[in-house]
Amino acid sequence: MLLLFFLTGILGLALGHYGCNLYLYIDTSLTCTPFFFMGYLFRKKTNLLNKNSYDKFWLPIAIICFSTVVSVYMHYQEYIDLRINKVPYHTIAFYTTSMIGIIGILIIAKRIGHIPFISYIGKYSIVILGMHFFFNEFFRQFLNPYFGSFNPISDIILFVIVLILSSAAIPILCKFTPKFIAQEDLIKMPQKKA
Fold it and tell me: How far is CA 2 from CA 6, 33, 102, 136, 173, in A?
């Protein structure tokens, strides 16, 4: 499975490298599949999210994680734009530093703990990821004539509107399409016999 997911990611990166942008951001989705698989592995196969003996070292580990990410990004001096599947880094550097950054964020989030609304939208972040673009593009058309493009006031108003509408979509999608927002298995995997 690990090989399959990383080959899928490399296929997505190759599409981006050759400028083959697919409909509905399928190319970007392919590029990002290894992150979902690594999230699955972290949850099922490691003790990172639970209390463990390494928790006392949370601050130095987080600093090392973010220092690694920043040093690699400073070295390449180009930015990633997953909307158009632009990843200018070497494949190994991209996936490795991204995973290290995710570990750093998980360590800090674990230390902070539960924050009611933030934890709620974090649990259903796939909904926010899937819905925000449509709300953003729709309402931007109404705000731009009044504020212009790239105006901080319109960006804040847009952020609030998108956050409210995306959050309101969570219970609706949980009820009607749970398989497509990872609340139920889309494909039933056979259970291993004990």
Answer: 6, 11, 18, 34, 29
Measured distance CA(194)–CA(192) in Å, rounded:
6
DSSP codes of every residue in the chain:
-HHHHHHHHHHHHHHHHTT-PPGGGHHHHHHHHHHHHHHHHHHHH-STTS--GGGGGHHHHHHHHHHHHHHHHHHH----BTTTTB--S-HHHHHHHHHHHHHHHHHHHHHH---HHHHHHHHTHHHHHHHHHHHHHHHHHHHHHHH-TT-HHHHHHHHHHHHHHHHHHHHHHHHH-GGGGTSS-SSPPPPPP-
CA distance 128 to 136: 11
pTM of the predicted model as reported, rounded to 2 decimal places = 0.66
Unique residue bearing structure tokens 């070292």: 57
Bridge partners of residue 86, in order along the sequence: 81
User: Cα-flanking dihedrals φ and ψ of residue 88, to 5°?
Assistant: -80, -5
What is the tens place of the pLDDT at every residue in 78-134? 778 888 888 887 888 888 888 888 888 888 888 888 888 888 888 888 888 888 888
Are 171 and 123 in contact by the 8 Å Cβ rule? The answer is: no
Residue 182: φ, ψ to 5°? 65, 30
